[in-house]
Amino acid sequence: MNQNTLTIPGLEQVYDALATAIDGAGPEKTELFLVKLALMNAQALGDPEQFQRHLAAALRDL
User: What 3-state class would DSSP assign to 26?
Assistant: First the structure.
């Protein structure tokens, strides 16, 4: 498991950057952007099982 964790300010910085990027992609390209981002992050994570756990966690309580 990755021992690197973000602090609350770090998470806020990531959230702001993500929101800005989604706005920049525009409504027609948001889904494509998010898929590309997820695949790039999965590649960086290097652990398909961990990625599956992240997917499940993100789907909870939508």
Answer: coil
Q: In Å, how far are 24, 25, 45, 59 from 4, measured between CA atoms? A: 28, 28, 11, 23
Number of domains in the chain: 1
The set of residues, in sequence order, having a beta carbon less than 8 Å from that of 49 and lying 6+ positions away, is: none
Asked if 22 contacts 31 with a C-beta cutoff of 8 angstroms, the reply is no
The string of pLDDT tens digits covering residues 5-61 is 899 999 999 999 999 999 999 999 999 999 999 999 999 999 999 999 999 999 999
Residue keyed to tokens 């910085």: 13
37 is in which domain, residue-wise?
30-62
